[in-house]
Amino acid sequence: MNKTIELIPYRPEYLAQVAQAIREMLTTPPLYETVSLNDVISQLNADQGRESFGGLLAVDEREQVIGGMWWFGLDGLGLHERWKPRFTPREAIPMPNGRGIYIASMGMIPSVRNRGLGKYMLSAALSTLELESDWIATVAYRTHSASLAVLHSQGFVTLPLESTQGQSKVALIKHTR
């Protein structure tokens, strides 16, 4: 059976499904993070109010969200301040020039991983985001080698920073200009 996956812009009516998908991504192996559905909804609601908020959802033929990503705009100081409590050494945290995009969350639910869907979704988003920004930054988990490989294949560079948080996270950036 051939399953159809469609990429659609984020819309608020998908909030509950998106939050559930993100929670599933974070709480299953290899991450095992403890995060409530309300925490995810609160974060997504907060980010929707940020400058240049946008998102892309991967939905299956039943219109169920199976993955997605969301982002917002910020300047170099905003990125520096966001990463300052999360990474060391502090003096190595970048403060890039110009306007950038921060990809706050990105991924696919575990049952559809390793099929190229994440790369497809990221490539689609980057085709627009690269035109609108001087740089794009994100954080990924060191334990998700496939995700890191996709980000690297799209031109993201892992920065020489160490996570101050429990899970081993890495900071990545891509300069577009």
UniProtKB/TrEMBL annotation:
Domain of life of the native organism: Bacteria
N-acetyltransferase domain span: 5-177
MF term (GO), any: acyltransferase activity, transferring groups other than amino-acyl groups
Identification of the protein by name: N-acetyltransferase domain-containing protein
